[in-house]
Amino acid sequence: MKTILMDLQGTLGGDPLGDISSFEFYPKVLKGLKLLADHGYRLVVVTNQSRISKGNISKEIYEAKKNEIVLEVKKFGISNLEFYCCPHTRDDGCSCKKPKTGLFEKANSYIKIDKENSYMIGDMGMSDMMFAHNIGIKKILVLTGVGAGSLNEYRDTWIKTEPNFIAEGFYEASLWLTNNS
Ligand SMILES: [Mg+2]
User: Fold this and answer.
1) 10: left (phi > 0), else alpha (psi -120 to 50), else beta?
2) Burial profile 65-83: b = 16 or more Cβ within 10 angstroms, e = fewer
3) How far is the CA of 148 from the centre of ligand 1 (A)?
4) CA of 110 to the centre of ligand 1 (A)
5) Cα-to-centroid distance, 18 and ligand 1 (Å)
6) Separation of 11 CA from ligand 1 center, angstroms?
7) Which of 140, 142, 130 is nearest to 165 (CA)?
């Protein structure tokens, strides 16, 4: 199934370097999600939450906030927002912390992802763009969150790859996608 994989914080809303608890959608992101859902995309959030492993936020708080977000998008007419989360730190040696591909594999084992027609959208080159690169799917960098920094002072951390498109924000990315696919 054609799928949009997407980062959470810095991409859909919230604090790009913090945890999920303060998450609120950026302007027009819900409109963007609706547009993508209406164009038949499966919507999959892939999020690194290392503060869970560090003990800074509990798994219960993460789950409660996630359920709140899913309910909010449902009220907006989007019934298919899925979440896949890596709770680990780098030292845990997991296979799911982006840019590793474990979250993709988990989502792919649930419903097969059509890689040719799928995209990753995110704000961090080193994790999100390299995640897409490691999977072998197309990618869009958004300039919200740490996106602008990813393009400038941190460009060397993901120099191996190029985004297929650079968007002001998630809504602009969804417009580009639905006009070009
Ligand atoms: Mg991010």
Assistant:
1) left
2) bbeebbeebeeeebeebeb
3) 12
4) 24
5) 9
6) 6
7) 140
CA 144 – ligand 1 centroid, Å: 9
Distance 46 CA to ligand 1 centre (A): 10
What are the residue boundaries of the structural domains of the chain, listed by start? 3-112+130-180
pLDDT digits (tens, 9 = 90+) for 119-133: 999 999 999 999 999
pTM of the model: 0.97
Tell me the C-alpha distance between 85 and 36, whole Å: 21
Question: What's the CA gap between 127 and 17, in Å, rounded?
Answer: 12
Written out in words, the top-level CATH class of the domain with range 3-112+130-180 is: alpha beta
pLDDT tens, position by position, 159-179: 999 999 999 999 999 999 999
Residue 172 three-state SS: helix
